[in-house]
Design a protein that fits this description.
With 272 residues, this protein is mainly beta. The protein is 7% helix and 16% strand. The protein has a domain of 138 residues.
Amino acid sequence: MSLNPTGTTNYNWNYSKQDREDYSPELIGTVVSLQEVQARDFSMNGQPGRPKFWPDGNPVMNIRMGVAQQDGTLKSVTFAKAGKKQRSGEKPSLHMQLFNLTNGNMLELIGKTVHLATWAAHPSTGQAWGQGNPRLFVVEEIDNPTPYELSAPLPEEFKVPELFANDAVSGGQPVPAQPAQIQVPNAQYQQPMAQPMQPMQPMQQMQPMQPVQQMQPMQPVQQVQPMQPVYQPQPASVNTAQMPAGMDPAVAQAMQAVGAVNVQPYDDELPI
């Protein structure tokens, strides 16, 4: 088979190379396995072609069906998944013909006995199969009360649901569980290479903290000098020294108030 690059046992149904001993235009058997396998390019030198990938980097996956023949031997047939035109009936598809034998679930084929047949060339035109003239198949289910069984255990490579092509491993490489990957919409997009990590710059030493200037002791508050008493005018005192003898003190005080000085007393005894 095209996905078995180095295996010593070839399980693939040979419907195209008439010069080989195992050539047969028909395949009858009970379906024992169904899985997805990575597609490969065609190769003319007998070596497996390169694994196929979509422009976004995801592998192109085909379908491989294993059947147990009446003699207990295992044969497999690998075919492309149906595209839009195959699903609509515009182009022939082995995938759709087998799918139509089920109720909408390909896994229902397991346990069914099927008959597949093809021709060496197009049966109507005689044109050789190739690009633009895809191979035609006839598919039918056979009523088989006793399904055929394998005489040897089913190989492990047929038991996994998905199988990647791997030239270093016989039979392919089972697909490990992988986290979901982000799809790249642009086929020309290339993920930029990670920039090398720059060496860490040595940490600059911190300058020692300047000592905090101590606060100068607070100067004692100068005591407030007591306020000088406001001068209050003293009532004019009677100058008793200038008061004439015998003058009425009240009269003398009144005269002093108006600025009279050296008031001479009136004395009847003084000479005129």
